[in-house]
Amino acid sequence: MGDMHSLSNFFLLRSLVLVAAASFFSFQPATSNFFRDVDVTWGGGRAVIAGDGQQLSLSMDRASGSGFQSKNEFLYGKFDVTLKLIPGNSAGTVTAYY
């Protein structure tokens, strides 16, 4: 009885490892393109897509800023931000990511 239980656990563990390995090796990260994947929601000319859709530049002036929204929902993602503030006192500059 003990040998049968050990053998059963071995096959169960082996099956789980095979499923995990198959899931890992079948994973393909999504490639994004701002032209295809986002809508500029406000700011008109202050939102510029460049670099074959790989870069999105948002800017602001004294009156307004700019924004964009994804066309799809994502479980997770990564983005990098470079932020340039005005020289001197930049208090009151608001940045947000939702």
TrEMBL record:
<dbReference type="InterPro" id="IPR000757">
    <property type="entry name" value="Beta-glucanase-like"/>
</dbReference>
<protein>
    <recommendedName>
        <fullName>GH16 domain-containing protein</fullName>
    </recommendedName>
</protein>
<keyword id="KW-0732">Signal</keyword>
<dbReference type="GO" id="GO:0004553">
    <property type="term" value="F:hydrolase activity, hydrolyzing O-glycosyl compounds"/>
</dbReference>
<keyword id="KW-0378">Hydrolase</keyword>
<feature type="domain" description="GH16">
    <location>
        <begin position="36"/>
        <end position="98"/>
    </location>
</feature>
<feature type="signal peptide">
    <location>
        <begin position="1"/>
        <end position="21"/>
    </location>
</feature>
<dbReference type="GO" id="GO:0005975">
    <property type="term" value="P:carbohydrate metabolic process"/>
</dbReference>
<dbReference type="Pfam" id="PF00722">
    <property type="entry name" value="Glyco_hydro_16"/>
</dbReference>
<dbReference type="InterPro" id="IPR013320">
    <property type="entry name" value="ConA-like_dom_sf"/>
</dbReference>
<dbReference type="InterPro" id="IPR044791">
    <property type="entry name" value="Beta-glucanase/XTH"/>
</dbReference>
<keyword id="KW-0326">Glycosidase</keyword>
